[in-house]
Design a protein that fits this description.
Bound molecules: uridine-5'-diphosphate-xylopyranose
CATH superfamily of the largest domain: NAD(P)-binding Rossmann-like Domain
Helix content: 40-55%
Shape: globular
Strand content: 5-15%
CATH topology of the largest domain: Rossmann fold
Structural class: alpha/beta
Oligomer: single chain
Number of helices: 19
Strand order of the largest sheet: 3-2-1-4-5-6
Number of strands: 14
Length: 438
């Protein structure tokens, strides 16, 4: 059986490594961050992702999963190397920062003396795979025998393990039958279970990922644009989405209007996509993504505006209980989090903001140390003039509005995720407001 390595131990890398071990492979994971490797080796996962920690612990025990900080050990150990490092947005630029991807390939190449396959999984600008394949050919001692494939990853945070073990599809960009055969071998269990396996060239594989995220972002911004119209017309965007969703060509998923999308993927991926299209002379094709981005950002501004209105026209000195800091539920990720962005703006405008999130407190405090962080939803809402629901954790959806009503100064709630039961909150004496609904 082939031995696999995984370079980069973020959300994607740890999940991929543990899931490949679950599929029966021996896996060696690598990161340049020694502290992360120590944490993982101790059976802990340095971020919150449901089901992941037990899987890591299981395969540390089974002996199929190990971690290292050494490129030499990686090259020695495996013959299929997955690169799973991040491609964040460049500072001061819309484009993707490829520093980590380039560093991994440069670190690995001089050690590749035997035939092997390097498999890129990171989200990259189209054209990157071609460039990296050429780099490997020139810098790996194995030369042409150090091959490259591109295998984009579509996992969602919060569902990373299930998305990896039961993906909607597998896409592999390859240049040779050998590379395709190796990847069929790696994914044989998933292919046998019926997962569509799509073989393309490099640029198509890279573009599938960019296009998928562009489509998802567009779908969310479409319904949020409808929310703006609903607000102007006195209509209800959730009822509209339910009705639209019955058309199978449209579908109800990803039509939840509210505070919009954030996180480590969609925002930076659509921006990098626009930037890359510009470099290729195809910027016109993606100008609509600017609008998608702008609609999304307006949702945050609109939420702040509604909060100010709910506080009687000024945020100065008003107590605001904020429920949620993560960019979505079941995650502790606060990268480009709409919730945290709104909480920060409210505070900058003079609000006395107290934030609670079930999992993201530590990350939120690191990114936004000046906000006040409370130990529970009840504590965050103590004496609040306004309660803001910004991340739809099940814990918040289940809150008893009557009980919460006992601790606030004013029973006013702004549900920026359209996820609370409006009737129940109103019955408990709350003024309930949301985005895109009367
Ligand atoms: C996304 C893609 O879904 C995934 O396929 C890709 O691999 C990485 O990017 P993720 O960032 O984990 O995954 O989150 P996702 O579940 O897509 O949500 C993204 C954002 O959109 C969140 O902020 C979420 O709150 C928001 N969202 C989602 C909405 O506002 N409305 C919706 O209907 C759905």
């Amino acid at each position: 059986m082939r031995r696999l390595t995984v370079l980069g131990t973020g959300y994607l890398g740890v999940t991929h490594a543990a899931c490949m071990a679950e599929l029966g492979f021996e896996v060696l994971g690598m990161d340049v961050d020694a502290a992360k490797i120590a944490t993982l080796t101790a059976g802990q996962v340095p971020f919150y992702e449901p089901d992941l920690q037990p899987l890591v612990a299981k395969h540390l025990d089974s002996g199929r999963l190990r971690f290292t900080t050494s490129y030499a050990e990686i090259a020695e150990f495996g013959d299929v190397h997955f690169t799973c490092v991040g491609t964040p947005q460049k500072r001061g630029d819309l484009a993707a920062d490829l520093t980590q991807v380039d560093a991994v390939v440069a670190g690995l190449a001089p050690h590749l003396t035997q035939p092997c396959l390097v498999v890129g999984k990171s989200t990259v600008p189209v054209g990157t795979a071609e460039r990296l394949a050429e780099y490997l050919r020139q810098h790996a001692p194995a030369g042409e025998a150090a091959e490259l494939a591109w295998n984009p990853e579509f996992l969602r945070e919060g569902f990373a393990v299930v998305d990896t073990l039961k993906p909607d599809r597998l896409v592999v960009g390859v240049r040779t039958a050998n590379a395709e055969a190796i990847l069929r071998e790696v994914y044989v269990e998933l292919i046998d279970a019926g997962t569509p396996f799509l073989v393309t060239d490099y640029p198509t594989a890279e573009l599938v990922k960019a296009a998928a995220n562009a489509f998802l972002a567009t779908k969310i911004s479409f319904i949020n644009a409808m929310a703006e119209v609903c607000e102007a017309a006195g209509a209800d965007v959730t009822a509209l989405a339910d009705a639209l969703g019955h058309d199978p060509r449209i579908g109800r998923r990803f039509l939840n209007a509210g505070l919009g999308f954030g996180g480590g993927c969609l925002p930076k991926d659509i921006r990098a996509f626009m930037a890359r299209a510009g470099e290729l002379g195809a910027s016109e094709a993606l100008t609509f993504l600017r609008e998608v981005d702008a609609i999304n950002m307006r949702r945050r501004a609109r939420t702040v505006e509604l909060a100010r209105a709910a506080c009687g026209g000024t945020l100065l000195g008003r107590r605001i209980g904020v429920l949620g800091a993560a960019f979505k539920p079941n995650s502790d990720d606060v990268r480009d989090s709409p919730a945290l962005s709104v909480a920060g703006q409210l505070q900058l405008q003079g609000g006395l903001v107290s934030v609670y999130d079930p999992k993201a407190m530590e990350n939120a405090a690191a990114l936004f140390p000046t906000l006040n962080y409370a130990g529970s939803a009840t504590e965050a809402c103590g004496r609040a003039d306004l309660v803001l629901h910004l991340t739809e954790w099940p814990e918040f959806v289940a809150i008893d509005p009557a009980a919460l009503g006992e601790v606030v100064a004013n029973r006013v709630v702004l549900d920026a995720r359209n996820a609370l039961d409006a009737a129940r909150w109103r019955e408990a004496g709350w003024t309930y407001r949301s985005l895109g609904r009367p």
